[in-house]
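Changelog entry: the Pectinesterase record was regenerated in this release. Current contents:
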Amino acid sequence: QINGTLDPSLMEAENTGVEIIEVSQDGKGKFKTISDAVKHVKIGNTKRVVIKIGPGEYREKVKVERFKSFVTFYGTDPKNRPTITFAGTAAEYGTVDSATLIVESDYFVAKNIIVSNSAPRPNGKKKGEQAVALRISGDKAAFYDCKFTGFQDTVCDDKGKHFFKDCYIEGTVDFIFGAARSLYLNTELHVLSGDNEAMIVAHARKNPSEEGGYSFVHCPVTGTGGHAVLGRVWFEAARAIYSYCTISDVIKPEGWSDNNKPQAQKTIYFAEYMNTGPGASLAKRAPFAKKLTAVEATTFISLEYIDAGKWLLPPPKL
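Regenerated structure tokens:
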């Protein structure tokens, strides 16, 4: 039985038994597509539904609607994870709706899933080339051992509280963006080379009273080329914190960008704590980047940053 510190609705969902829906390309599951499995979940769902997904490439655009809470996507074989892929672009769908996987419901969990946007790499010559792999807009979502691939705008970490653990995210420009309050733990952030400049984070907190902010803890920052920054100003109070991360020399010495908005330097919160590696040197950091004390860092390196005690559970054991 799940204990009493959790949100009551989550406790009820986890304690009423699990519905398992199998998706398999070989016809052995109940459905052959993930979209059909999601359609099967009832609007107003109140119990945990695990959609077990067999290996293979699923070429589909998948949306988990607002009122389909407590859904888990579970790749059955960790050594051969299923890939959900689609080539939606901002020109065709608008940026946030270009995502291959859109989750708008609460208490979503994913384990052993690869999500990719297969649209071509933007060359900056025409508008609307951004192409999102994942958009997570529901509250209290967790991703374990997942991989997200794309170029510009790979992960739209939109709103709500989220947890990413042991994941891999790659991209070029703003490849994690949005206004959510999220904790990324042991998740590799891989900057693809080949562009003149790259930015990992574009955070969308509009003012310092909003709770949004991305905290990266023990996250390797990988890549080569010395052309990237950890984050840039998107909205005036953008917030991103890197702690205990190993940072390669893909990151430029200044580390951060105010995106030619010097007025935002007063309201942004770009911070670092106890990082290591050639890209972690604070010697030439932008003057607006904060070097946190142990006390200041405490908030951001704890699971309580995302109120985990009320909702965060390990992935189901099937």
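The CA atoms of residues 153 and 175 lie 4 Å apart.
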